[in-house]
Amino acid sequence: MKEPQERYYIAYGSNLHKEQMSRRCPDARVVGTGWLRDWRLLFCGEPEGPAYLTIQPEEGCWTPVAVWAVSSQDEEALDWYEGYPTLYDKTDLELEVREAATGERKDYPVFVYIMTEELGPGLPTKEYLQTCAQGYEDFGFPTAILREALDESRRRRSMPR
């Protein structure tokens, strides 16, 4: 019998949290890490609601990501959690990944969830921010990047539209 096909998903927010991902996507396994070049990390959401992380194209910015191998059932769970296709859309990319098992760098076809453009900068709940920070710690990413995303989201939120 043929094994179900895996796809490679890149996480940059709360899905970096390893314990949370193991509950949400029981088949998921860490493949490695990488950096999205020319993508800025921001918190966006409804004007009066909580904000969640997303990425937006911006030259000169870098966003750290974890790469997960996910089953089709895991991808369905992620689609539901991410509010696909209403809150987040899915995009396919090519990413250079540093494999966790070997340390080698290889290109992988990956998919990522990106928030729909209708939502503007906003502020996250304390719990969501803590979950993301734990994920950053889980992968050894600098948490200063999250603080920068929060500061930039605050700055953009205060600007007139």
Protein model, in words:
It is a single chain. With 161 residues, this protein is α+β, with helices and mostly antiparallel strands. The chain has a single domain, classed as Hypothetical upf0131 protein ytfp, CATH 3.10.490.10. The chain is built from four helices and six strands, in the order E-H-E-E-H-E-E-E-H-H. It has helices at 18-24, 72-82, 126-139, 144-158; strands at 7-11, 29-45, 51-70, 88-99, 105-115, 120-121. Strands 1, 2, 3, 4, 5 and 6 form a six-stranded antiparallel beta sheet that branches. Strand 2 (29-45) and strand 3 (51-70) form a beta hairpin. The longest helix is centred in the last third of the chain and has 15 residues, at 144-158. The model has no long low-confidence stretch (mean pLDDT 95).
Summed up, what is this model?
This protein is an alpha+beta fold and 161 residues long. The chain has helices at residues 18-24, 72-82, 126-139, 144-158; strands at 7-11, 29-45, 51-70, 88-99, 105-115, 120-121.
- Name given to the CATH homologous superfamily: Gamma-glutamyl cyclotransferase-like
Q: How do the SSEs run, as a string of H and E?
A: EHEEHEEEHH
What fold name stands as the CATH topology? Answer: Hypothetical upf0131 protein ytfp
Global morphology: globular
